[in-house]
Amino acid sequence: xxxxxxxxxxxxxxxxxxxxxxxxxxFTFRSSGMHWVRQPPGKGLEWVAVISYxxxxxxxxxxxxxxxxxxxxxxxxxxxxxxxxxTAEDTAIYYCAKDLRGGYDYFDYWGQGTLVTVSx
Amino acid sequence: xxxxxxxxSVSESPGKTxxxxxxxxxxSIGTNYVQWYQQRPGSSPTTVIYEDDQRASGVPDRFSGSIxxxxxxxxxxxxxxxxxxxxxxxxxSYDRSNKVFGGGTKLTVL
Lengths: 120, 110
Hints:
The complex is a heterodimer.
Chain A: E1 3-7, E2 10-12, E3 18-25, E4 34-39, E5 46-51, E6 58-60, E7 68-73, E8 78-83, E9 92-99, E10 107-110, E11 114-118
Parallel strand pairs in A: 2-11
Antiparallel strand pairs in A: 1-3, 3-8, 4-5, 4-9, 5-6, 7-8, 9-10, 9-11
Chain B: E1 4-5, E2 9-12, E3 18-24, E4 35-39, E5 46-50, E6 54-55, E7 63-68, E8 73-78, E9 87-94, E10 99-101, E11 105-109
């Protein structure tokens, strides 16, 4: 049974940084691409970033490019998202999601999310 | 980049059939697969349909997906509506550099 558990969210001041984690189990993590998707409170879904199974390829939404960094540790079955230079527009629930087909284009399993609130 | 446009809300009675549309603004809907995700209140999204018309594991056959090249749109159809189907539904597709979600449709089963 696939299980994805995000952590690391919280309240952070504008301009500061935060690192999110996603602990994975129930599937072969080292063989799967992984995504981050976010959802501002009361709003829709926005794709944030994807990383290939081996960590060699990473792609980002324009809205976070240059500020966020996706990474993974296959020895620990853990996905990360480093969030820098945060603004109020980054306030959202952040979900990790498992890539479905290996093309890094869509998702099958989602975590429960972790809330990031950017506020002074 | 393209956009995916969904109706803001739809409502229907239990036992009936409802269809939610998702229209692509530019480029052909048939170029890249369309997925559908369900998000019940207070929960994270779950995958309902992938690759236009494939049901995800555990999804009942009351849910079906399709695309229509002529209208450049995708559709999610739910038959035999149940109160548990009340949720937000998001379509999603992609191009070379981006993954795009529709704005979501709130389904009310009343």
